[in-house]
């Protein structure tokens, strides 16, 4: 089954700790994205990557870091510099622009809570 | 800057009625729009998309209308069912395939 998988589903972090959220896709998509969603709000872009070994900051990149060493994987690290990390994190992937339909497919999300 | 927004935060409809969810966008250069459905605690699911060279696109029980003159997008759901209850987002495709999302509209379907 092709799809995009996020893990874990729930994650608890102590203040001052870094945590890494996993995102894996087997859709052969070049582009991958991380979004943050706060209660009752829309999705805000954290980081995105159009190709392996390349990524760009989105609108709210401060306190986050990513890597894109493999096409299938785009892990997100929430660092201690992120002052309000409690949120629902969504990973997505899509074809690159110019390669047909480019709608993004989303994972089921990781709910991060700072305790 | 770019922005996508929704007119109604909550929409309540009776089962069997038609639903219309509206969305405004600000970037007149955008050429691709998507509607997503998000159920509680889950990731958004693709519903339907439309390119700017079209005014209307139909799917199964859903229709998207695009009015480029006033930069307005709408999602029509025919014969709304309880399973349609969710938050609906419109999204605008910006540069580098970035999706710009609005705040969403919650659709509540009552029996």
Identify the notable features of this structure and list them briefly.
heterodimer; A: 115 residues; mainly beta; seven-stranded mixed beta sheet; four-stranded antiparallel beta sheet; 11 strands; 49% strand; globular; B: 111 residues; six-stranded mixed beta sheet; five-stranded antiparallel beta sheet
Largest interface: A-B, 29 and 22 residues
* Global shape of chain A: globular
Helical segment count of chain B: 0
Whole-number mean pLDDT of chain A: 91
Structural class of chain B: mainly beta
Sequence stretches where pLDDT stays below 50 over 5 or more residues of chain A: none
Order of helices and strands of chain A: EEEEEEEEEEE
Mean pLDDT of chain B: 89
Gyration radius from CA atoms of chain A, angstroms:
13 Å
Largest sheet of chain A: 7 strands, mixed
The helix-strand sequence of chain B is EEEEEEEEEEE
Distance between the termini of chain A: 35 Å
Number of strands of chain B: 11
Low-confidence stretches of chain B: none
Number of helices of chain A: 0
Could you please describe the fold and organization of this structure?
- The complex is a heterodimer of chains A (115) and B (111).
- By secondary structure, chain A is mostly beta strands.
- Chain A has no helices and eleven strands.
- In chain A, the strands form two sheets. In chain A, strands 2, 4, 5, 6, 9, 10 and 11 form a seven-stranded mixed beta sheet that branches. Chain A has a four-stranded antiparallel beta sheet with strand order 1-3-8-7, with no helix packed on it.
- In chain A, strand 5 and strand 6 form a beta hairpin.
- Chain A starts with a strand and ends with a strand.
- Chain B is mainly β and 111 residues long.
- In chain B, 0% of the residues lie in helices and 55% in strands.
- In chain B, strands 2, 4, 5, 9, 10 and 11 form a six-stranded mixed beta sheet that branches. In chain B, strands 1-3-8-7-6 form a five-stranded antiparallel beta sheet, with no helix packed on it.
- Chain B is globular and about 40 Å long.
- The model of chain B has no long low-confidence stretch (mean pLDDT 89).
- At the A-B interface, strand 4, strand 5, strand 9 and strand 10 of A face strand 4, strand 5, strand 9 and strand 10 of B.
